[in-house]
Amino acid sequence: MDLSPRPISINNSNLKLNQDHEVDENLTDGVSTKVIRSNKRAFEKVLDESRVSSPKKVPRIEIDDVSDLKKYRDICENIKRKKKEHQQKNELRHATFKSERRFQRLLKAKEDLIGCLEQRISELEDGSKDSDVSTPITKLLETIKKLEAENEELKVKMIDTEFKLKRYMKDCERFESLYSNRTSLGLTVFDGNVVPSVQGTTTDIAKLKSIFTLTETKLKQLQKEKEELHFKVSESESNRMIEEKRFIEDKNCLKNEFLDEQIKYTEHLAQCKPLIVVEKKVVSQVDEVTVKTVQDTLNNLTNDYHCVKNLITQISSTIKTETEETTRKIQKAISGVDTRNKELVHRYTNEVQLRKLYHNQLVELRGNIRVYCRVRPPIKEDEEVDSVVSFDTYDDGIINITSKSKTQQFHFDKVFPMDASQSQVFDEVRSLVRSAIDGFHVCIFAYGQTGSGKTYTMEGTVSDPGVNQRALSYLFEEAQNTVWQYEIEASMLEIYNETIRDLLDADCEDKNKLEIKMKPEGGLYVPGLIATSVKSLDEVNEIFETGRRNRATAKTMMNERSSRSHCLLLLSIVGVNTITGNKTFGRLNLVDLAGSERTSKTQVEGTRLQEAKHINKSLSCLGDVINALKNKHSHVPYRNSKLTYFLQESLDGDSKTLMILQISPVEKNVSESIFTLNFGQRGMSAELGAATKKMEDGKEHFVYESEGSSVHGPGAHFREGKIKSAIRCNEGPQVKKLLRWEVKGTPSSARRPNCETPKSPGTSLTPSNRTPNFPKTVSVPSKLSVRYK
Ligand SMILES: Nc1ncnc2c1ncn2[C@@H]1O[C@H](COP(=O)(O)OP(=O)(O)OP(=O)(O)O)[C@@H](O)[C@H]1O
């Protein structure tokens, strides 16, 4: 059984080493008592175990505190040292042995070499003494010398080694004796300390050694880092020193420069000072003079300023007075001119009115066609807004139209500017409607280019009706008269592509069968045309609605809803005087002609082109009729178209005829507008003869010629059978109205030699003139209507 104590484990973490890789004694105080106690316990356990096996050999060792541990550690150190020394002794022994062997080898080599040399020398001495061999011999001798020197060195070394060897041998012997003592006890007492056996401590030593090695390595690293840091610190320190040195140098340099500059400045100042004193003196002297001069100038200027200011005040007051005076004079002059102007305008207006009255009288006497002109405002189809027409401020019968920088002036009975309202237009038409009530034949037709506003003027819109509806409203208003009772019948037809269509007839198939016929006793009529008796405005509106629905219209380039036919609203007004029994037979024909159009401009084709051709042809026939009337031709070509044939009665002199010219205000339609205006101008100069009033009293048949529509009134302007002539004054002393009468039965048309028909006496399409074979009224199921048969 092995009685040697077992190794004692010591917690490595509690062992502290100083920089010299030795156990720091001071630090052992840091070892915890717990570790000491555990170490002690382990040590005691080993000793107890040894005692159990051989109780007499094992001495008792007490480790009670840190000092015991220190002792133990010292013992370990000693053992470690001795072991190292033992190892060194062995190494030395080994090295000595190796040196000895080498020495032996060298000795042998030397002896061999010497033998070889001696052999060679003898050979040389025996053989030829050739000079060639002297060099190798010399070399050999040198080598020998070297070898001898080496030999000497080796001898010295050998002696040294032998000496060392002897010393080591002695040490070895001593160690061996010590070692043998230790092994016999199981512990070694070394230098008075008890040391556990070498075998037990070897492991500890190895561990300690590895710790030392690690620590050493770490320390080396730390040392290295420290050195590096030292180096860096020293480097930066040296840099800093260099910089500081440089800075101090710069600072000194600048300081020197500054001092130099200061010296220079002081010197310069010293030089300038007397000069400045002199300058100051001069300036103070000059200043005094200048200030005085400036002061004087300023005073002068102030005086001048005051003078000028006074002058200006005087001048401005003078100017003000003068201006006031002049303004007063100008105002006086202007007011004088204004008064004169007003007077002139007044006179001129009176003259214009007078001229108009005379013109009206003349128109009445001559039976001229009255011509109004209305300019519609620009519409979206015009694609432009600039107007080429202008008006006269004081004369409402003048219109100017400019084409290609040339302005033409036209005179008409009345010109309506673009902003004229429907009611303003009707105000000028009212007198003619009145004439129709009084028993005259009246025809109003609108003429003009397509899209120029004919339908707008005649029909108008629902919210703003035109001449047609306003005329009928007016008729109904007048029909309220207590003395006269009126019966009104209405027919509506259109001339479409030279065919007559009844617009009040719902049966479309019959439309083409209508024809204009001449009565044997004279006068025209349309057999089969529905005549509806109207008693209220609602019935009239119904008629208009039916007519509008049945009328042919279409969209063209010029008009969103272009009339493709001539539309005629025929009204017969029979008035009966409830006191005298006298009867009047008036007629009112309201015609909305289709518009003339340039097919190249409207770009119509197919049906629209056919319509346009018929429209243009019939309008051209109307132009021919107007020309013939104007030029008093013996033949007037009424029968060339249905339109002129139908309008014959209105144009042959027994009617009051009003032509409303419609024009567009824009440049692109200027040629058509001028054409329309020229047409109207020709129409104005056509003399038709005075219109006659159609009335009967049962005994005598009087026909009166009107003297200006404005003076009409029921029963106010005829004297039954007795009046030959009379002059009445109306609208001022200058205006004298002429009354004329004709004997019973004298046909108005008989006065006109240039009429185509009628040949026999009689009047036109009026109920009063109906002969026994003339159509009678028949009841129409839906309405109170008549159909001429
Ligand atoms: N005085 C006016 N004020 C406002 N709009 C107007 C006036 N006159 C005409 N117009 C407008 O101009 C357009 C063309 O007018 P309208 O249909 O009456 O022309 P027209 O001469 O009857 O044309 P067409 O011969 O092709 O039937 C319509 O849209 C109508 O409302």
Uncertain runs are 1-32, 57-61, 183-201, 698-789
Distance between the termini: 170 Å
Q: Structural class of the secondary structure composition? A: alpha+beta
Which hetero ligands occur in this complex?
adenosine-5'-triphosphate
The rounded Rg comes to 77 Å
Shape descriptor reads: elongated
Residue fraction in strands: 15-25%
Q: Care to count the β-strands?
A: 23
Roughly what percent helix?
40-55%
What integer is the average pLDDT?
73
Q: Biggest β-sheet, characterized?
A: 11 strands, mixed
Query: What is the count of helical runs?
Result: 12
Q: What does the oligomeric state look like here?
A: single chain
Subcellular location: Cytoplasm, Cytoskeleton
Keywords: ATP-binding, Coiled coil, Cytoplasm, Cytoskeleton, Microtubule, Motor protein, Nucleotide-binding
Main location: cytoplasm
Protein name: Kinesin-like protein
